[in-house]
Design goal:
Keywords: Cytoplasm, Transferase. InterPro entries: Glutathione-S-Trfase_C-like (IPR010987), Glutathione-S-Trfase_C_sf (IPR036282), Glutathione_S-Trfase (IPR040079), Glutathione_S-Trfase_N (IPR004045), GST_C_Tau (IPR045074), Omega/Tau-like (IPR045073), Thioredoxin-like_sf (IPR036249). One of its GO terms (molecular function) is glutathione transferase activity. Belongs to the GST superfamily. It catalyses: RX + glutathione = an S-substituted glutathione + a halide anion + H(+). By secondary structure, the protein is of the alpha+beta class. The chain folds into two domains: 74 residues, 3-Layer(aba) Sandwich (Glutaredoxin); 127 residues, Glutathione S-transferase Yfyf (Class Pi), Chain A, domain 2 (Up-down Bundle), CATH 1.20.1050. 53% of the residues lie in helices and 8% in strands. The chain has twelve helices and four strands, in the order βαβαββαααααααααα. Strands 2-1-3-4 form a four-stranded mixed sheet, with helices on one face. The termini are far apart.
């Protein structure tokens, strides 16, 4: 990647992981160069990953001069704090605004977690999951409001936390009972706006690639 050279940055990642994509967007926004180390998602974990994240044994993990930082939102905050003079700030400076951003970034995980239930469950459980999923999207839309981005005029922490989940929505429609037409208009417009950013466009894969991935790993993900 173009930008400031930081030989000590290595991202343990998997190409379609929305959690890893959060970290990629953050690194791109800050203009930081890094080495990408592609890991195995379903097979045996590498020795490097097991040493770097012995608790959860999963990606993403950021190595900075050999020291591991795990969990995507923790990694993004670390990047922002470790390189304060490089690129734009990802979190707001005001303590209350920062706390609010952390809340909504963490809440955005519900798009993925509840979304999984939409296409993995059946019958009444799937119906309930779909209803909850729509509520999650409406809550996010309410927080976004009429602002261009969740933090206001500038792309930031909540935006990069949420946007990697959006290319998964068409697959939820295909394998579940959710319709992308149920995405609130403001949130849909926000998704398109984020997609116009170079950091996002270069870090995410289109919905078609996500669907190909799910189709290839149907058994692993419990898709019939």
């Amino acid at each position: 990647m173009a930008g400031e050279i930081n030989k000590g940055l290595v991202l343990l990642d998997y190409w379609v992981s929305p959690f890893g994509q959060r970290c990629r967007i953050a690194l791109a926004e800050k203009g930081l160069s890094y080495e990408s180390s592609e890991q195995e998602l379903f097979g045996a974990k590498s020795e490097l990953l097991l040493r770097a994240n012995p608790v959860h044994k999963k990606v993403p993990v950021l190595l900075h001069d050999g020291r591991p930082v795990a969990e995507s939102l923790v990694i993004v905050q670390y990047i922002d704090e470790a390189f304060p003079c490089t690129g734009p700030a990802l979190l707001p400076a005001d303590p209350y605004a920062r706390a609010r951003a952390r809340f909504w970034a963490a809440y955005s995980d519900q798009v993925f977690e509840v979304g999984k239930r939409v296409w993995q469950l059946k019958g009444e459980e799937r119906k309930q999951a779909r209803e909850e999923f729509v509520r999650v999207l409406k809550n996010l839309d309410g927080e976004l409001g009429e602002k261009p981005f969740f933090g206001g005029e500038a792309f930031g922490f909540v935006d990069l936390a949420l946007v990697p989940f959006m290319p998964w929505l068409p697959s939820y429609e295909r394998y579940g009972e959710f319709s992308v037409a149920e995405v609130p208009p403001r949130l849909a417009a926000w998704t398109r706006r984020c997609g116009e950013r170079e950091s996002v466009a270069k870090s995410l894969y289109p919905a078609e690639k996500v669907n190909e991935f799910l189709a290839q790993h149907k058994d692993d993900y419990g898709i019939e």
